[in-house]
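Q: Got a minute? One more chain.
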Amino acid sequence: MFRLRRLPVLLSLAASAAVSHAGQQAAANKTAFVISSAGAIRNVADSARQSIPLNSESSTMTFDNEYPGTAVERMMAVRARVAQLAEEDLNGPWDDVRRKLLWAGGLRDLPDAVPGQGYTGHAFNDYNHVDLTCMAEKVSDNQNDGSVREIAVGNLLGPGIRAASLPELGPGGSWSTCANGSNKDPPQDVAHVQFRSRIAFKLVWAPNPNFDTFVLVDDDGKELARGTPSGDLPSIRQRQLNYAIVQGGKYAKAAEAIAGTTGTAAE
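A: Always. Here it is, folded:
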């Protein structure tokens, strides 16, 4: 079923056309676009494994007035790829799982590139670089003016974004931005402040005894997928810190539900 909630967020004429087209396809695909009261645009499918038929070659784009740095078409294409991931993609050896997350996020696996020039070996491999952000080209060279705490002033990411982003997901670029400040309302992290962009997904390690299960959540904090990988995971301290930086905010809720906790502090 296709529906829109009343919003203060205005859509461009191009966005209205895109939403209308999605509505016509909804019956056949059993998939709908929902724009939340917070302004996030996300897909809702009968099955977590269904994908959205998006044409990354289309010039029709939606626009997010609240976060105008969002590459909305690209963000939706990333979530469609996440929906395509099978259980074995998310529950196998960590190195393989991480590469799948990079692919879903529209990023190349570049472990040998120079940091700042496309290196993605850090993505999802520590507590902080876990926000898959799709930003418009016009904001990819935005720098941190000091508004994002615990992030270096400057923080120029544009050259790395352009080198590492896969073009087939649509206009703009992708990056694994820092999640510091995402427990605030509104989020005060690199995506939302430096780039004025929503996140396509965030990886959060659930606070179970071993911190060995992660969940991917969208910009509203809703679960998209989860996995319990094996092998050489990020250290347990990194996984604990990952949960700690979202604790108390909307992005922690799905992880806490998996662990059966209600915001218990990570030790």
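A: The chain has eight helices and seven strands.
Q: Perfect, thanks.
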